[in-house]
């Protein structure tokens, strides 16, 4: 039995439920759980609605944690559930230390955490330090205070250009479209200063050169750490510090991106941002129980990503290079090698991720025949939509490859059901600020945020206790509902369960990758621990290696052949 199974399964013969902090200190268990964990992202709005308002909530999550325990995940990451006007689905926070009423209460959060810990599942919460909501008390104070006041200093207010200050301070564009500056009206009714918002105008950026901002976030970290969370996913981790000269900047691509340009924007990857995380690391280290930070930093290479996880900074960072790779053996081999090299060099695990709430679901994305500019989304008129069968086969194969890699892996809710992108949402249903800020030119991310199907025959597929789901679910998801898949050994859900169980049994997260060569260019083959993995990214079949037992296959084998878009896990026959 592996360490992870020890942690996850309390001894059935006793009623005692281990407290995670105790467990991680137990001799013989690995304290650094985040090095190999499989972390399941919950997007609370779309997971499960217990209140019947059509929006998912914390009690809804708690009630369904058994399903995640059965899946075999080590931890969950909750996208924001803090008090928020929901202009950007919770990434616009008014009170960092309370729960928004649509999601429940702090007691509901405590209950969720206790239940997760009783199942041996760790809980990471989302922290949004780059910006607050414009409804945040601090921003409201800044609006009524004078230019140059301490209240304004918490955000980034500047005078406009031109004789009347009528032009924005520079040409920066919001990532959601349109200018990144908005002009306010001063308390006396005159046109006033401009404030910076890298995202929506309802999301003003904090000024991280201010000691008060730093102190406030230390307080917020401690608030959640005191409640018992196991860590934080840090939103826009590369964006907190801006070039203090505020130079004009035009990104390479037409659409603004979350980052990742070879020459970083003057609002991303500034070296002083690392001091923030060095400071936070010290805060986390005040606490027992091995708490972790994971950065959301869109940068242009894994070498750059590794800067976020140097030994005195964060524990993990998302590997978006991996997410952005195509289903192509050479590309995948390159990014896997680069990742393992770069992260190992700083003593950190690589992470692996294929989907999240900001990108086209990988059951669609990996088989698109057209372009996919990140964050722009795809709509009903998108010309390169794949057939669903190919998309799903590729997604299953890609996930089987990902979950065989050493390091920590992230799973986005619904991918275990093989959900595809809902490209055909009606215009009037769309809610992403990107859609509004570009007057419908860019679809945005609603298509990957549609509420989950739990039960094929229930109203709204069992997502809500009576409401109308906040985004409509497509009829085609009936056959993908969790209850249908639970009973089917060939379902995507059954495949995920098997992958997670074998990954744990063979300790793949803590293993080492060794390439095995001699196959065709469309094939990736390697060993990790005692498992041999073969991923066929091509369309034609390849022979199954002889002398091996098949542990799993992401789709049905054709006799002794591995079909295209299929990954197999094998074990060498003894003797
Ligand atoms: C990244 C988050 O993942 C995304 O959903 C959000 O819109 C932006 N940061 C702004 O907070």
From TrEMBL:
Matching Pfam families: Alpha-amylase
Occurrences of domain Glycosyl hydrolase family 13 catalytic (ranges): 41-449
CDD domains in the cross-refs: AmyAc_OligoGlu_TS
GO molecular function: alpha-amylase activity
Keywords recorded for this protein, A-Z: Glycoprotein
Stretches with biased composition (Basic and acidic residues): 1-12
GO biological process: oligosaccharide catabolic process
Tree of life domain: Bacteria
Positions of region (Disordered): 1-26
PANTHER family linked: ALPHA-AMYLASE FAMILY MEMBER, NEUTRAL AND BASIC AMINO ACID TRANSPORT PROTEIN RBAT
Family that this chain belongs to: Belongs to the glycosyl hydrolase 13 family.
Protein name: Alpha-amylase
